[in-house]
Design a protein that fits this description.
The chain is α/β, with parallel strands linked by helices. The chain has helices at about 1-20, 90-95, 100-105, 105-125, 140-150, 190-205, 220-235, 245-255, 270-275, 295-310, 330-335, 335-340, 345-350, 355-360; strands at about 20-30, 35-45, 50-55, 65-75, 80-85, 125-130, 155-160, 165, 185, 210, 240-245, 260, 280, 380, 395-400, 405. Helices cover about 35% and strands about 20% of the residues.
Length: about 400
């Protein structure tokens, strides 16, 4: 008993010492995504997982660990607002229908996929992410809890649990196999079913609510969506709406959801409604990379129009495919390419990947910027991303909550 007590005491002492370690980051340049400005020769003092101070005339204590990033450009960690970390789609097997993936991969295996994908996301510079369903029976909730407990590395995470949808969800079912789409989806067609679905999700650990508006002939009305927004708000949760059709995006914009996911068929009128109602567009424009030429043009055009009209956008990819030689993290970073093709200014791309995303997640007082008192989520790249946004694909340093992940 005494040996166990002293062992525990030593472990506790080590943990306290590690957590209180002071780190000084010598930065060549620091980018502020909100103002679009760069400061030179800055020092970031990190203590207890947070930024203790930041400036050009900071005295570094003798006991501090010094990290030399004087030849790099430093900025806040990045966000992906549309992920499915507990789903790796095998193109050869699925032929574009991830329905087969959900049937073949048990939740236990999907949780392991989530662990691997969370790590590669973090190593690529994504220190925060929002998982919007397709996680089986709350597999990503388990991954998020493991990250929070420090058991595994991964981004600061929000998870949607089971996606709420009209009957059938995003699948076409067979009448003699009616249960195959559950628990991937939570079918809710009546108001009572909508309330139950939201409350069960909240009870089992969802931190954001995801609905599918329109993947069937019958779609949620604006009134249905408003009802679910209000019910989710009772639990302190925001509502994200998958919208694949023009009609679905219109209803979601009118209802005033927190975010429209995809929305690739939105008209200028609907984009204007979204802007008026404070709806954030998470366009998942990464999907344009492997789509048909016609669809690719449509994705990029909608992205360009949304930017021109001043719609608030947050970066989200919907990357799910397993690709040889790539990780989920490197694939997620490829989502920058359609933004560049659309002519979006680097400062606006960076804002979508940090400030706008942090506000959508509701963590803007903690993350998305480098300021005193905020979490020490810090990355470094070789060039100024305000001049060359593709430098984000070359992240050389990652810190999450004051802990060095990649150096």
């Amino acid at each position: 008993m005494r040996r166990n007590f002293f062992g525990f005491a030593l472990l506790l002492l080590f943990s306290i010492s590690a957590f209180s370690q002071i780190t000084a980051i010598k930065a060549g340049k620091i980018v502020d995504p909100e103002s679009g400005t760069v400061s030179s020769n800055q020092t970031i003092m990190v203590e207890n997982g947070k930024i203790a101070s930041i400036g050009s005339d900071i005295a570094v204590p003798a006991n501090a660990t010094v990290i030399d990033l004087t030849s790099s450009v430093v900025l806040p960690g990045l966000f992906d607002m549309h992920t499915h970390l507990c789903m790796d789609v095998q193109a050869a097997r699925d032929a574009g229908r991830y329905y087969y993936t959900t049937l073949n991969d048990p939740d236990s295996f999907r949780a392991i996929q989530g662990v691997v994908n969370a790590r590669t996301m973090l190593e690529s510079g994504f220190t925060s992410a929002r998982d919007v369903g397709n996680e089986g029976n709350y597999a990503c909730v388990s991954v998020r809890r493991a990250i929070q407990r420090g058991m595994i590395p991964g981004p600061t995470f929000q998870t949607a649990g089971r996606i709420i949808a009209p009957y059938g969800g995003q699948f076409h079912l067979q009448q003699d196999k009616q249960n195959l789409a559950e628990p991937e989806y939570f079918f809710a067609d009546t108001r009572d079913e909508m309330v139950k679905a939201i409350r069960q999700n909240a009870h089992y650990g969802a931190t954001v609510i995801k609905i599918v508006v329109d993947d069937q002939r019958y779609i949620y009305s604006a009134e249905d969506i408003k009802f679910m927004i209000d019910e989710a708000a009772r639990a302190g949760l925001k509502l994200a709406a998958h919208c694949w059709t023009r009609a679905g995006a219109h209803n979601a914009a009118v209802a005033g959801v927190a975010s429209i996911e995809h929305g690739f068929d939105m008209t200028d009128e609907d984009l204007a409604i979204a802007k008026k109602n404070g709806v954030v567009l998470v366009g998942t424009d990464y999907l344009a990379l492997d789509d048909s030429p016609t669809a690719h043009t449509q994705w990029v055009d909608r992205l360009r129009r949304a930017s021109r009209l001043g719609v608030t956008m947050a970066y989200g990819t919907d990357a799910t495919d397993e690709k040889a030689g790539q990780t989920r993290g490197t694939e997620t970073m490829r989502g920058i390419d359609p933004w560049v093709e659309a002519g979006i200014a680097p400062k606006d791309i960076l804002k979508a990947m940090t400030i706008n995303a942090a506000r959508l997640m509701g963590v803007e007082k903690e993350r998305g910027a480098l300021r005193k008192g905020m979490a020490a989520d810090i990355i470094a790249v070789p060039e100024n991303p305000l001049e060359n946004v593709n430098t984000l694909k070359k992240v050389s340093f990652v810190m999450k909550n004051g802990a060095v992940i990649r150096k």
